[in-house]
Structure formats: structure tokens, C-alpha cells
Amino acid sequence: MNAKQLAAEEAVTHIEDGMIVGLGTGSTSYFAILGLAARMKEGLRIQAVASSQGSEDLARQLGIPILPFSDIEAIDVTIDGADEVDENFNLIKGGGGALLREKILAANSRKFIVIVDDSKLVRRLGAFSLPVEIIPFAYELTMRNLAALDCKPTLRSSEGKPFVTDNGNYIADCAFGVIESPAELSNRLKSIPGVVEHGLFVKMTETVIVGSGEGTIAYL
Ligand SMILES: O=C(CO)[C@H](O)[C@H](O)COP(=O)(O)O
């Protein structure tokens, strides 16, 4: 079993009958969705909400019921991956482009479990370019305002065209280098008109499960 799968399968053991589960996005969350479906085959009863169309489609294929948001008050547990986790449990997310929906799910969850392989652990965030979701209108100006925060923004592309999120927006991947203060940068990014959301998750989780290539699982 690979490191991502190990972390994902451990996270799934936290899910109990009757829970509403938030489904993350990405290759680690993929294993969590498979793990939930496997537990449902053994009798677990859950309902879910998803952070991307891809995760929703996968869940439906596997028979995991997806609820409309109008039917829920809160999410019991969300399980999701991350691109970087620092020593204070701050995260960079959005490598898969789903950061906006992922943050909405995490912010509305009683518990947010982050699952990663050990390559994602860093002392300080920033080696991974920070994904920032921006609206397409005047995105060139928004990118200039991002660059003024002392980073190098690159418009994410796919097959020669701008990558478009599930929300119809673009992603600017911003190379900051070491991020000294995630909380301060979060506020500065949110103050730029045209920025919808960014991939800094500041103090949003208390549970990080790490799988390693040696087959071990650790809770941070
Ligand atoms: O934030 C995400 C998607 O927007 C993912 O959780 C993050 O990119 C990690 O991906 P993976 O599990 O494939 O390594």
C-alpha cells in the first residue's frame, strides 16, 4: 500500500454511522473515497458532500450518497489532502484546483482531517507555489496586484488554455518562496479585488495523518 493510501485508510476509520462526510479532492482523497465505499460495503451508513465535480462523480459511481447543501447544517468530518503542511498545521492546498470548495467544506466541518504522505511536511510553507483562485475578468490586473505582494504569479494552463476551476475561475500559482506569516499573507491576498480565495489554510485543522513509504502511519 502506498503512503497516500495508508494515510487515507487510517482517516476513514474515524468515520461513524450516520455521519455527513466532506470529500476532498486529489490523489490522496481518491483513496479516502475508495476507503469509505469499502466501509459502506461492510455496512457503514454515511452521506457525503464533495469538494469537486470529480470527487462527486467518483463517489456516486461507488454508491456513496451525495447530499445537496440545502439539506445539511454542518459536516461532521471532512477528509482532504494537502500540498504542504507546516509545523503549526498551516496548509497550502489547491494543487488540484479545488481550493475554494475545499475551504468552504473545511470551514463548515466539525473535524477536518488532513491526509498526506511524508513528502508534504515542511518547516515553513512556500516551496510549493500558492494557488490563488481569481475571476477571469481583468485577470491580468489581478495578477499584477498579486505580483506586487512579492511573488511570481503564473496563470495555470491546461492544453494551451487557462485552467478553469469548477467555479468558472482561473488559478494563479504564486511562487512566494518562504512564507513568513501565513495569516498576514492570507489577509493581504483577500484584500485584492478579483481574488476569490487562496490556498493558504491557516489553523483550520488539528488532525494531520501522515503515511510513509516505509508503511508507517503517524498522527501529528
Ligand atoms: O488541494 C488539493 C486539490 O485542490 C489537494 O488536496 C492537494 O493538491 C493534494 O493533492 P494530492 O493528494 O493529489 O497530493
UniProtKB/TrEMBL annotation:
Family that this chain belongs to: Belongs to the ribose 5-phosphate isomerase family.
Catalysed reactions, semicolon-separated: aldehydo-D-ribose 5-phosphate = D-ribulose 5-phosphate
Keyword Isomerase: yes
Active site: E102 (proton acceptor)
Organism: Paenibacillus glycinis
Entry protein name: Ribose-5-phosphate isomerase A
GO molecular function terms attached to this record: ribose-5-phosphate isomerase activity
Oligomer and partners: Homodimer.
Name of the gene: rpiA
Enzyme class: isomerase
Record-listed substrate binding positions: T25, G26, S27, T28, D80, G81, A82, D83, K93, G94, G95, G96, K120
Job of this protein: Catalyzes the reversible conversion of ribose-5-phosphate to ribulose 5-phosphate.
Domain of life, source organism: Bacteria
Pathway noted in the entry: Carbohydrate degradation; pentose phosphate pathway; D-ribose 5-phosphate from D-ribulose 5-phosphate (non-oxidative stage): step 1/1
Gene3D superfamilies listed in its UniProt record: 3.30.70.260, 3.40.50.1360
Enzyme Commission number(s) of this protein: 5.3.1.6
Alphabetic keyword roster: Isomerase, Membrane, Transmembrane, Transmembrane helix
